[in-house]
Design brief:
Layout (H helix, E strand, L loop, with lengths): L3 E8 L10 H16 L8 E5 L3 H5 L4 H8 L7 E4 L5 H15 L5 E8 L5 H9 L14 H16 L3 H15 L13 H6 L2 E3 L2 E2 L8 E10 H4 L7 E10 L14 H14 L8 E3 L5 H10 L8 H6 L16 H5 L3 H17 L13 E8 L4 E8 L1
Parallel strand pairs: 2-3, 2-4, 9-10
Antiparallel strand pairs: 1-7, 1-8, 4-7, 5-6, 8-11, 10-11
Bound molecules: coenzyme A.
The site of coenzyme A has 16 residues, from helix 5 and helix 6.
C-alpha cells in the first residue's frame, strides 16, 4: 500500500448561500483545492464526490457527471459516493484507497450539499431518510427526535445534564466565531442555549446543527510525490469505516455508537497510535449530545465523562484535547455531504499551522476526524499527520 498525502484543501463559506447554486458551490471548492495544491485540472486522474440527497434537495442526480463537466475534467472518471451525513468522508476514503492501491495518482475528492432552498419540514423529512424510513421517520421520528432519545438515556444512565450538553454548543460557537467560513460566527451562553426554542426534548434549537449550503474539496497524491507539489503535505495515516443497525431500536445501547467505537479502534491500530497522540479532533456534533457521545466512543474520555469534561473546558482550544476547532457542525454548519471533507480541510489547516482567526491549536502534529451517517449506521474515522 502506498502512503497518501493531502496536497490541497479548500472550502466555500458555509451558510445560507442564496447567491450560489449547487454547481457553483462544488466548483468553487474544487478550484480552491486545486489552487491550494498549485496544480491545474490536467494533472488529475479522477475523483470522488460525496452528497447525501442532491436528488431530493435540488432535483439533480448524476453528480459525478456534473462535477466532471463543470470543473472541466471530462473525460476523467468522477464517482458519486453516498453514506448520509458521512458521504464526504466516504469520498475521502475512496480517494485514499485509489491512491494507496496505485490505481490512481492525483485524485480530487469533494463533498457538497445545497439544503436551504427548501423549507425546514421538507428538509427534515429528507434527512430522516438517513435513519430507518419505515420504523422511525414514517412514525414521526425526525433526526432531532432520534438524538433526543439518546440524550434522555445518557442523562438517565450517566447523570449528563442539559448544561453539559449546552457547554458543547457554547464551545463550538466560540470556535465558530473565529472561523470566517462558519455559518454562525457569534458566541452564545449556556443560558441562551437552555432558554432557546425546544425542538425535541431535551434538545433545544441551540443544541442542533443547522441546515446549511456548502462544499469542500481536497487533492490527494502519493506521499513520495507530494513534496514536489507542496512544502506542507499532510499524510493520511489511517482511514477506517464501520457500520451498525439502521434503526435505533435494534441497538444494544442508546448511549453510544458502536460504529464509532469500531472505526476508532481500527484507525488507531492502523496509525499505531492512541488517543494520547491526537492533538485535536473534528467530531460529528450534529447535536450537542452527539459530541459528548463521540468523545467517549472515540476514547478521549470514559463513558459518561464526556459531559463533565466538556463543562470543565477540557475540549476547548486550550484544553486537554481541543474538539471541533472549526466550530463543528453546530457553528460551522452541516451541509451534510460536505461535512466530512470540511473536517479534513480543518485538520489540514491546523496541521500546517494555518488556521486563522485565533483558532490555531498550538503544536498540532496529529489530528483526527470523525463523521457519522444518520444515527450511527455508518461511522468514518481518519487520522492525519504533518
Ligand atoms: C433545529 C431546526 C429544526 C431549526 O429550524 P427552524 O426552527 O425552522 O429554525 P428557523 O429556520 O425558523 O430559524 C430561526 C432562526 O434560528 C436560527 N437557527 C436555525 N437553526 C439554528 C441552529 N441549529 N443553531 C443556531 N441558530 C439556528 C436561524 O438562523 C434563524 O435566525 P434568524 O431569525 O436570525 O434568521 C433545524 O435547524 C434542524 O432541523 N436542524 C437539524 C438538522 C439535522 O437534522 N441535520 C442532520 C443531523 S444527523
Amino acid at each position: 500500500m502506498r502512503r497518501v498525502a493531502i496536497i490541497g484543501a479548500g472550502m466555500t463559506k458555509f451558510g445560507e448561500e442564496w447567491e450560489k447554486g449547487f454547481r457553483e458551490l462544488v466548483v468553487e471548492a474544487g478550484i480552491k483545492a486545486l489552487d491550494d495544491a498549485g496544480i491545474s485540472g490536467d494533472k488529475i486522474d479522477g475523483g470522488y464526490i460525496g452528497t447525501m440527497a442532491s436528488g431530493r434537495l435540488i432535483g439533480q442526480e448524476h453528480i459525478g457527471g456534473l462535477l466532471a463537466d463543470y470543473m472541466g475534467l471530462n473525460p476523467l472518471p468522477i464517482t458519486r459516493v453516498e453514506g448520509a451525513c458521512a458521504s464526504g468522508s466516504l469520498a475521502l476514503r475512496q480517494g485514499f484507497m485509489a491512491v494507496a492501491s496505485g490505481m490512481k495518482d492525483i485524485i480530487v475528492v469533494g463533498g457538497v450539499e445545497k439544503m436551504t432552498d427548501l423549507g425546514v419540514t421538507t428538509v427534515s423529512d429528507i434527512l430522516g431518510g438517513a435513519g430507518d424510513q419505515e420504523w422511525e421517520l414514517f412514525l414521526g421520528a425526525t433526526f432531532p427526535a432520534i438524538y433526543a432519545l439518546m440524550a434522555k438515556r445518557h442523562m438517565v444512565e450517566y447523570g449528563t445534564t442539559e448544561e453539559m450538553m449546552a457547554a458543547a454548543s457554547v464551545k463550538n460557537h466560540k470556535h465558530g466565531a473565529m472561523n470566517k467560513y462558519a455559518q454562525f460566527q457569534r458566541e452564545i451562553t449556556i443560558e441562551q442555549v437552555l432558554k432557546s426554542k425546544m425542538i425535541a426534548d431535551p434538545l433545544k434549537v441551540l443544541d442542533c446543527s443547522p441546515i446549511t449550503d456548502g462544499a469542500a474539496g481536497l487533492i490527494l497524491a502519493p506521499m513520495d510525490e507530494a513534496e514536489s507539489y507542496t512544502k506542507k503535505p499532510i499524510e493520511i495515516i489511517a482511514s477506517s469505516q464501520a457500520s451498525d443497525t439502521i434503526a435505533l431500536h435494534s441497538r444494544e445501547t442508546l448511549t453510544g455508537l458502536n460504529a464509532t467505537k469500531v472505526a476508532a479502534k481500527k484507525a488507531f491500530d492502523m496509525a499505531k497510535m492512541t488517543t494520547k497522540d491526537i492533538n485535536l479532533a473534528e467530531v460529528h456534533d450534529c447535536f450537542s449530545i452527539a459530541e459528548l457521545m463521540a468523545i467517549e466512543d472515540l476514547g478521549f474520555f470514559e463513558k459518561g465523562q464526556g459531559g463533565p469534561a466538556t463543562l470543565a473546558g477540557k475540549t476547548a482550544l486550550n484544553g486537554e484535547i481541543p474538539i471541533n476547532p472549526s466550530g463543528g457542525l453546530k457553528a460551522c454548519g452541516h451541509p451534510v455531504g460536505a461535512t466530512g471533507i470540511k473536517q479534513a480541510v480543518e485538520c489540514v489547516w491546523q496541521l500546517r499551522g494555518e488556521a486563522e482567526g485565533g483558532r490555531q491549536v498550538k503544536d498540532a502534529n496529529v489530528a483526527l476526524s470523525h463523521n457519522v451517517g444518520g444515527s450511527g449506521a455508518t461511522a468514518v474515522v481518519h487520522i492525519y499527520k504533518n
